[in-house]
Write a structure and sequence with these properties.
The chain is an alpha+beta fold and 130 residues long. It is built from 4 helices and 8 strands, in the order αββββββαββαα.
Length: 130
């Protein structure tokens, strides 16, 4: 089990009021990932547009922003706090140290990512037959 107190030594925790945008779809920096320590966040595509899509709601212990951290690409979604939240930010430099010292965190993330892919692929209809 990962000790969140130890992670705070290599990552920074911030308090966010309800309705705060933590990351914005299309944003370039920072290339960080985040772990929800307290509260809830909503992951959205096309935030505040007519075709806004609610991708997920994440709570304590769940993470987001990993794609930008690992791929060094722009954000693919916007994340907004649903309620007052404490979020741990892990930047690129600290991510290597954390994964080296806590390999179980990498394994848990990999499992969660596989589940996300499975859940998403289940929503995509099969190709049309010719």
């Amino acid at each position: 089990m990962i000790n969140v107190e130890e992670l705070k030594g290599v990552a920074s925790a911030k308090n966010y009021p309800r309705g705060t945008v933590i990351i914005q779809e299309g944003g370039q920096l920072p290339h960080s990932m985040y772990i929800v320590l307290k509260g809830k966040v909503r992951v959205l595509r096309n935030f505040r547009m007519y075709n806004e899509v609610n991708i997920a709601e994440l709570g304590v212990g769940e993470f987001f922003g990993e794609m930008s951290l690992f791929l060094l690409e722009p954000r693919t979604a916007t994340v907004v706090t649903i309620e007052e939240s404490i979020i741990l930010e892990i930047d690129q430099l600290n991510a290597y140290e954390i994964f080296e010292n806590y390999p179980e965190m990498g394994y848990r993330m990999l499992r969660a990512l596989c589940q996300r892919i499975k859940d998403t692929s289940g929503k995509i209809p099969p190709p049309a037959r010719k």
